Inverse folding.
């Protein structure tokens, strides 16, 4: 057992010792009652201490000492040391849409897993499996979310802090297809927090994951979006494209094209009407044209954020929208800027981001990344290519042993003492029992053996 | 104090009389036989006629039988001025909060005053306590008992004022009743009472004792004299027997000393009906018990 604040334990011991000393040293004058004939009571000499110790007194002393020690021990925050192992593993398991076969990932985990290891399932969020790991692995399923290695690494760091008292060294392993979309701008910084190497176990990625978006643009030749998309995806071929960007109003052929395969029809109106204008709204319900367009200032989509005075001309009613609709881009204040709805084997994506025709925003890489995020393949399909070897090497870190000494890992932010609440409860019980015993004793006649002579 | 207005006590002592133990010396005509030769029809003695005697007092029938000229002398009747002295020291306010000793003392005082008024004798009151000494001079008015009630109801026993200095103020009274627990200045009180008896006064002592004093209940405590905080002694089972013996011995010695001095002594224990205490004080049997010891 370890005490996180042992000073309190020593302080409690001192206080308890003081209470015991006071109990045995100090004599208490008995209760005084008036009696006019007190002079006829026999004289008895004053003695320093001749009060007889009774069982109730000792029990009272015991209860008081126990209450003090329980409080002190509780404040000292005892933690029961778990059995320590040589090596413990933290297994980060990718369950995102990039994963081809969850069973393959589960088998990889089983090959590494031992009792006491931590398993973290991640996609865009991370879940630490604390019990019934084999059952959870058997039921492992692929999610529709994107993989996020940053999230997984943060969960690994937290789990490692909690495990540092249970093992001499800790090994981190990542079981993932390692697609490019799993890495974001923060991944390298978070990876640097892990003080050692990482074992990488690659599993098969989904076949469509490797298929990059090939964009066909339907619009004016001088449309600035065409320039941005060319910067994001390169020159598109309408015959082999799997993403069609329509700047006007899509027709039935466009919809049938999207539904026929795993294709994306991106409806990105170049112009838009107003509620009081004669022209029909450029976007379908539940999109509505704003009476007074504003400039919200920033936009985020697929992990890309662009700060620019975009004109926001449409509003989306999420409550009235299709329950299956998925927001793929949001304005700075949280309102949807682009929504995707499944359509047959593909999907239709509506984007209400106004592309500025002035300035050089569309020429900047950040806008190209935004355009790429808004013209990616449908949700559930990974668009990123496999992580390149350089990034993989950076992720794996130093070669050789991947075990990290537990002492090199950061202390957990909060260490909970599960015993402390029980100790405080016990202290309260002891104090109440002492109080009851004291009252009971006070109401009883106490035989005297001492007195004060005159 | 509601117990002072209880009429049951006055009803109980109605019809009682408090006769004088010896011939009275009162200045005014009253219900008790006086030492003076007076005009009552009760014959006292014959005296040889001397010039100056009233001719109407000559017993002519005796002259006809014996030839000697004698005058017939008869007793005179006199009043009996009575003062009731009540101890209002702190020890009388025991036990708390009932103050049984003080309640009994007040009831006995009122009862004795009522009996005195039955005999149409003047009765006065002296209350000595922490607030000072309150005096009601002896009066024979019907309102005297009511006045005594009023005075006693305004007194709360406190302090440790001695009673002995009060007694010399009562030389105009021929009968003095002391109602006290004698826990203050018993020796000085005995000396003063002896002087009063020697001066021809009738002195009655009603010794008020609480049941809780005879048999203390709070054992295992430190008992403290309310009139002297310096007296603090432990009292437990082991010391209880010694306490009882010492207290009983003191009471016996006190009673013997007072009786030897000619004082009529009566012990009154709380819980006892006050009219019974009054009856014991005023009945001649109580008087007779003290008479053989008179100087």
């Amino acid at each position: 057992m370890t005490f996180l604040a042992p000073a309190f334990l020593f302080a409690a011991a001192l206080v308890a010792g003081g209470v015991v000393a006071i109990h045995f040293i100090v004599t208490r004058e008995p209760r005084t009652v008036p009696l006019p004939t007190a002079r006829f009571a026999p004289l008895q000499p004053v003695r320093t201490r001749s009060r007889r110790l009774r069982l109730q007194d000792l029990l009272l002393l015991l209860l008081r000492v126990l209450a003090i020690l329980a409080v002190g021990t509780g404040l000292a925050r005892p933690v029961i040391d778990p059995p320590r192992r040589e090596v413990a593993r933290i297994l980060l398991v990718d369950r995102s849409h990039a994963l081809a076969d969850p069973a393959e990932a589960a088998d990889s985990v089983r090959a590494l897993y031992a009792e006491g290891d931590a398993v973290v399932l991640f996609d865009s969020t991370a879940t630490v499996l604390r019990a019934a790991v084999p059952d959870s692995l058997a039921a492992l399923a692929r999610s529709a979310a994107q993989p996020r290695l940053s999230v997984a690494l943060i969960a690994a760091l937290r789990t490692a802090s909690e495990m540092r008292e249970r093992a001499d060294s800790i090994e981190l392993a990542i079981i993932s297809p390692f697609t490019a979309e799993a890495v974001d701008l923060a991944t390298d910084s978070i990876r640097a927090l892990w003080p050692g190497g990482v074992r990488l176990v690659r599993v098969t990625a989904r076949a469509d994951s490797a298929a990059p978006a090939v964009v066909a643009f339907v619009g004016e030749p001088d449309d600035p979006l065409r320039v941005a998309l060319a910067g994001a995806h390169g020159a598109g071929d309408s015959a082999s494209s799997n993403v069609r960007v329509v700047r006007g109003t899509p027709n039935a052929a466009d919809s049938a094209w999207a539904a026929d395969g795993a294709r994306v029809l991106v409806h990105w109106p170049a112009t838009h009407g107003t509620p009081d204008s004669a022209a029909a709204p450029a976007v379908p319900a539940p999109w509505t044209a704003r009476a007074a367009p504003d400039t919200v200032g920033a936009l985020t989509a697929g992990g890309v954020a662009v700060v620019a005075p975009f004109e926001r001309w449409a509003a989306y009613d999420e409550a009235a929208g299709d329950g299956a609709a998925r927001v793929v881009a949001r304005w700075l204040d949280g309102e949807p800027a682009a929504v995707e709805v499944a359509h047959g084997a593909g999907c239709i994506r509506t984007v209400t981001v106004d592309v500025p025709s002035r300035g050089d925003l569309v020429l900047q890489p950040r806008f190209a990344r935004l355009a790429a995020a808004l013209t990616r393949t449908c949700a559930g399909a990974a668009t990123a290519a496999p992580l390149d070897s350089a990034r993989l090497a950076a992720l794996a870190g130093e070669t050789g042993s991947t075990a990290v000494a537990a002492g090199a890992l950061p202390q957990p932010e909060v260490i909970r003492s599960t015993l402390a609440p029980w100790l405080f409860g016990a202290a309260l019980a002891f104090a109440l029992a002492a109080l009851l015993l004291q009252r009971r004793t006070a109401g009883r006649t106490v035989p005297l053996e001492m007195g004060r002579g005159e | 104090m509601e117990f002072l207005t209880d009429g049951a006590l006055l009803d109980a002592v109605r019809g009682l009389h408090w006769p004088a133990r010896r011939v009275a010396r009162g200045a005014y005509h009253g219900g008790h036989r006086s030492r003076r030769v007076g005009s009552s029809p009760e014959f006292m003695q014959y005296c040889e006629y001397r010039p100056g005697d009233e001719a109407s007092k000559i017993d002519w029938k005796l002259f006809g039988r014996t030839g000697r000229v004698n005058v017939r002398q008869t007793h005179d009747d006199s009043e009996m001025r009575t003062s009731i002295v009540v101890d209002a020291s702190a020890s009388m306010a025991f036990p708390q909060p009932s103050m049984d000793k003080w309640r009994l003392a007040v009831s006995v005082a009122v009862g004795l005053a009522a009996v005195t008024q039955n005999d149409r004798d003047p009765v006065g009151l002296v209350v000595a306590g922490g607030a000072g000494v309150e005096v009601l001079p002896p009066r024979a008015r019907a309102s005297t008992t009511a006045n005594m009630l009023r005075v006693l109801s305004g007194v709360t026993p406190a302090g440790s004022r001695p009673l002995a200095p009060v007694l010399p103020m009562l030389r105009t009274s021929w009968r003095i009743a002391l109602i006290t627990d004698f826990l203050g200045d018993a020796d000085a009180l005995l000396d003063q009472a002896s002087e009063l008896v020697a001066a021809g006064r009738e002195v009655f002592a009603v010794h008020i004792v609480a049941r809780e004093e005879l048999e203390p209940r709070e054992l295992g405590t430190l008992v403290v004299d309310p009139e002297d905080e310096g007296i603090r002694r432990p009292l437990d089972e082991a010391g209880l027997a010694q306490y009882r013996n010492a207290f009983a011995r003191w009471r016996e010695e006190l009673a013997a000393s007072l009786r030897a001095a000619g004082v009529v002594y009566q012990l009154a224990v709380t819980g006892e009906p006050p009219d019974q205490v009054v009856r014991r004080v005023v009945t001649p049997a109580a008087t007779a018990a003290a008479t053989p010891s008179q100087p």
